[in-house]
Amino acid sequence: MAWYYILLLFAYCGTIISIVAVVLSENRNPVKSLAWITVLLTVPVFGFVLYIFFGRSLKNTRMITRRNRRRLRSREAVRHVDPLKASLSSPCRQTARMIQSMSGVPLYEGSSVQIFTNGMDKFESLFSDLASARKYILLQYYIIEGDETGSRLADLLIERAAQGVKVRIIYDHIGSIHTKNSFFKRMADAGIEVYPFFRVNFPAFATRINWRNHRKIVVIDGVVGYIGGMNVANRYLTPGWRDTHLRIQGPAVGGLQYAFAVDWSFMGKPLIADMPDGVCRSAGTHYMQLLTSGPSHWSNIAMVYIEAIGKAVERVYIQTPYFLPTDSLLRVLQAAALSKVDVRIMVPEKSDSRILTLASASYIEECLRAGIKFYLYKPGMLHAKTVVIDSDIVSVGSTNFDFRSFEHNFESNVFIYSAEVNARMAAVFLDDMSMCRRVNPGEWKRRPRVQKAKESMTRLLSPVL
Q1: pTM for this model (two decimals)
Q2: N or C, fewer C-beta in 10 Å, the chain?
Q3: How many helices (H) and strands (E) does the chain have?
Q4: Residue 141 clears pLDDT 80, i.e. is over it
């Protein structure tokens, strides 16, 4: 039997050498490439398993064919705005132009925004709009639980489907893993098209588990859209859960509709052809862009953050449940603070993940040294994902300020160029500050060594958390 083990050893070594060659050919960040090569060569078997789960790359994988992309864009009756001709400040025009040139995302003019900072108001508004749907509903969430909130949503969608409304649902298979199949089957039996994104049954489990669709998008008749940080579950309605979500009307709803249609096509479903044109009429005065990001292309949202924060001159306010920035984002935040820009970052004092709380804490000291102000939200879980820059740029969506959101998840954020919306979001941030504990640099530096060691060890896992 010795020959059998020798054959297995040669097969294993050949596989590892092949994977190392793949890692080198992908021309990733040298630090990441070296880390994976080190793991593969020094940790037998486990290193191979770790790479299969977390090291694979989707770069250069198309979400949709160019032909279908053109077909979807051609159905938008609303005219797009040239960023260079829009009545925006120079920094806003530059950001909008970058988004457009990088990903083909158009700039929409004439939309309105309603801001929700708690689940009760958001879901009452959403359910009311869903009940008024007459033509179609597009609904996409990372988590849809089968609790009271999820059941209320399902009942409402089934009732609308019975009235002839076309309902399509995308949910993330891992995000909704605790929801029973019978919950989704009941909607499917009622004529609703409901599908999981990247189903991870074996043997596809290992190759898909690291790529999750974290988006939260709803479109109703092409007239009303929702985007933000809230999923569908009871916990988002509790007083201790602080989140941010937007209700949008106007041409920008077309961006949400387009993003959903791309994901629908990516799952192998027929191109959506029954969404009527010309329904996204002007409903306000705000300029907006809907930007998506994911592992299949470069980190769109992170790149825009780097560009927009890098040219900030007044303030940068960030709310995020987890703060695990990439090196480039950390440096641009530090550079802004050292340039005397008012940089403030708010995270929960205790998040819903112990390990992410530890990893996030490891970045605070080097931020404080640069003059960044850190605030720990005390009342409960701060789940909002918002960025306020200077007096006229706002970003709200599903993207956490961490490696996973920037590099591994499929995310979506709306970028709003409006002094009015910026002032409203800044006021929300300042109101939340009254419920925070500001981190004192001296006290933070004197934390117990054991605590610092835990944070430093956990930080090593940041790229895969």
Answers
A1: 0.88
A2: N
A3: 18, 19
A4: yes
